[in-house]
Amino acid sequence: MSELPHILLVEDNQDDYEATIRGLKKNHYTNPIQWCRSGQDALDYLDKKGSYASDLNSRHPDLILIDLNMPGIDGRQLLELIKSDVKFKMIPVVILSTSTDSKDIDQCYFLGANSYIQKPVNFEGLTKAIRVMLDYWFDVAYLPQHKGQG
C-alpha cells in the first residue's frame, strides 16, 4: 500500500469513539483516522459534500468501521448505501455493535459487511479485538488498490 492505511470510523457515541481511539493507540495505530458522527456525515465525507466539499486532503478510506445503531441513517442503511455505490463497494466494512442478535448479524452480512464484531464491554477486550482486526486487515488481508470506478 503506497500510503498509510486510513480508517473511517462512523460512531455517534463520544465515549465509544474515545475508547476506540484509545484502543487503536494502545495497539500503536497512528495512521489517519476520520471520525464521522452519523451516517449522513460519513456519506458526505465519502462523496466530498457538505463540510467536506473543500477538503483537498480527504481520500477514500482503506477500512470503514460502522456502529450499527445510530439516529438518522443508521449503520444498516449506511452499509447498504456504501455497498450499492460502485465508488465505495470495494472498501472493506466492519460493523462494530453491542448487538449479538442473529437478525442484525445476518442482515449486515446480507447487505455486504466484510466482518461483524461485537463491541467488548471492557477496554481490555476492546483493545484485543482492535489488535486482531488491525492485524487481519492491514497485515494479513490484501486490500483493493482501486477503491472503485469513480
What does this structure look like?
By secondary structure, the protein is α/β, with parallel strands linked by helices. It has one domain: Response regulator (Rossmann fold, 3-Layer(aba) Sandwich). The chain is 39% helix and 15% strand. It is built from five helices and five strands. It has a five-stranded parallel β-sheet. Helix 1 links the parallel strand 1 and strand 2. Helix 1 crosses helix 5 and helix 2 packs parallel to helix 3. 26% of the residues are buried. The mean pLDDT is 91.
Instruction: Tally the beta strands.
Output: 5
The CATH first-level class comes to Alpha Beta
Relative helix content: 25-40%
Sheet with most strands: strand arrangement: 2-1-3-4-5
The N- to C-terminal Cα distance equals 19 Å
Number of domains: 1
Identify the CATH architecture: 3-Layer(aba) Sandwich
Along the chain, the helix and strand elements come as EHEHEHEHEH
Average of pLDDT: 91
What is the CATH topology assignment? Rossmann fold
Radius of gyration: 14 Å
Tell me the overall shape.
globular
Give the strand content.
Answer: 5-15%
Report low-confidence residues grouped into runs of 5 or more.
Answer: none
Report the total helices.
5
